[in-house]
Amino acid sequence: MNIEKYDLAIIGSGSGNSLITPYWDDRKVAIIDAGIFGGTCLNAGCIPTKMFAYPAQLASTPQQVAPLGIDMAFESADWPEIRDRIFSRIDAISAGGKRYRDVELEHTTLITEEVHFSGPKQLTSQTGRVLEADQIVIAAGSRPSFPSVPGVHLPGVHTSETVMRLPELPKRIIIVGGKYIGSEFAAIFAGLGAEVIQVNRSGRLLSSHDHTISDEFTRVASGHWQLEMNQTLHSIEQEGHQLRVNVSETGGNLNEISGTYTSDVVLLATGREPNTDRMNLEAAGIDTFNDFIARDEYLRVLSNDEPVEGVWAIGDIANDQMLKHVANHEQRVVSHNMEHPDNMKPDTLDAIPAGVFTRPQIATVGLTEDQAKIQYGSEAITTKIQAYGDTAYGWAMEDSDGFVKLIANTSTGKLLGAHIMGPEATNLLQPVIMAMSFGITAHQMARGQYWIHPAMAEVVENALLGLDVPESGLL
Ligand SMILES: Cc1cc2nc3c(=O)[nH]c(=O)nc-3n(C[C@H](O)[C@H](O)[C@H](O)COP(=O)(O)OP(=O)(O)OC[C@H]3O[C@@H](n4cnc5c(N)ncnc54)[C@H](O)[C@@H]3O)c2cc1C
Ligand SMILES: NC(=O)c1ccc[n+]([C@@H]2O[C@H](COP(=O)([O-])OP(=O)(O)OC[C@H]3O[C@@H](n4cnc5c(N)ncnc54)[C@H](O)[C@@H]3O)[C@@H](O)[C@H]2O)c1
């Protein structure tokens, strides 16, 4: 048997691609991806969704400026033009990255086949290529999960992998799912002029977020598109050119159809599952935890609870947060640890933020109020909700929905969580992430710097000053 030998083999060209640092220039590297080069974020995730979310947000400008005395009208969105602008850029980046690894670099070998483990340090491809490597990094990501009900594979039923390449803007779209993906696409399609029905299993959108965010977002979103709450998908049927989406009442008899909606296109945004089942991990004895690969703090995979030297995992296949900035950080940890085996560093970042680029935008970091109460006790925490509308820039915007919610420890003054809904939420949150990451207290953050007046960020300053925390001595 011909066994190909490598110094490093990487399964997955998303975050895995960045593992090929100059350290590997004079070493042999295999990068393996059976899908589109560059992975989910580039091709079907963060990047194209945000490139759609931005024009969709601009398209809603007339509603935002109406209270300011400006009359504007939204006429139409040219879906093919928007789509082609986005994918002509993205497809070229993916093709360029693929060519670079495949053709231009001598020390890298690109394998465009499905692989699985056939031994502790051995991989076998679909066509029978056998690879062995001193270091193996599993960066094989996740994929959309489908509810096990009839009709989910009918033509016209899409996931985030395909819906952005639709030939035209659907007149009406039913979106099943009420968290990140469902809420981002609801804002995109509604903003661009489609009729959106969002079907949600529970009674609240973004139900894992802080309850104030979840409640307020549900309220505001219901004014932007149609929400059908407490509905569980029962089945999807073809009805001529239309799709019938049948739902059951959540908590009721799930075999009984309690409602039906019809549309041209259905988007399933019903979660993502890690690609662990594609890896034959048993052949390498790799442990899993809730279907994710189990790791130690250096991001080495575990086998019978013990770290395996030279086998690592990063990104969605190992981290249930399923966020690109988390995968990127893990890539840097694993790069360092592979390149400095005598000075390995653990993955220690814990203030993990996330943005939901919906309408209005949402950003969050740290504990929700409920989590903080459980962890510290109600009396040990202080919260403040500051409305954008009660600050000078909020008056300028005539904002009536946005707010910043902060949670801090009453005795240490440290921030425990921050949750923002409103314009530029993701940008407003970044200094709070910095304070949490570097241990700056709420009062130090409020009073240890100038806040530009009267900028939008004063909503964060005012929220900080509203917390019941010890003073830092700063003026
Ligand atoms: C619609 C959408 C929007 C998103 N938006 C954001 C956002 O705004 N911000 C954010 O932080 N995150 C976002 N995410 C999440 C983000 O995209 C992921 O966290 C990130 O892409 C994960 O990267 P990864 O390297 O772990 O995996 P991936 O980039 O998915 O790479 C894994 C690769 O492995 C390949 N592969 C899998 N199994 C095998 C096998 N057996 N053999 C060969 N190849 C294999 C796949 O083809 C794939 O290309 C979004 C996700 C989606 C779906
Ligand atoms: N902006 C971002 O950072 C971003 C954007 C998109 C995705 N992501 C990542 O991708 C991951 C997946 O996101 P997601 O929103 O698809 O999944 P999710 O698991 O967060 O939410 C799935 C939704 O589908 C609903 N659902 C599941 N089965 C259902 C059924 N049978 N009937 C009705 N509803 C059903 C759930 O109740 C839930 O609302 C997340 O972990 C997220 O971190 C991040």
Automatic annotation (TrEMBL):
Residues 352-463 form the Pyridine nucleotide-disulphide oxidoreductase dimerisation domain. Residues 6-327 form the FAD/NAD(P)-binding domain. PROSITE patterns: PYRIDINE_REDOX_1. Its cofactor is FAD. Keywords: Disulfide bond, FAD, Flavoprotein, NAD, Oxidoreductase, Redox-active center. InterPro entries: Class-I_Pyr_Nuc-Dis_Oxidored, FAD/NAD-bd_sf, FAD/NAD-binding_dom, FAD/NAD-linked_Rdtase_dimer_sf, Pyr_nuc-diS_OxRdtase, Pyr_nucl-diS_OxRdtase_dimer, Pyr_OxRdtase_I_AS. The keyword Disulfide bond applies. NCBIfam families: PRK07846.1. Belongs to the class-I pyridine nucleotide-disulfide oxidoreductase family. This is Mycothione reductase.
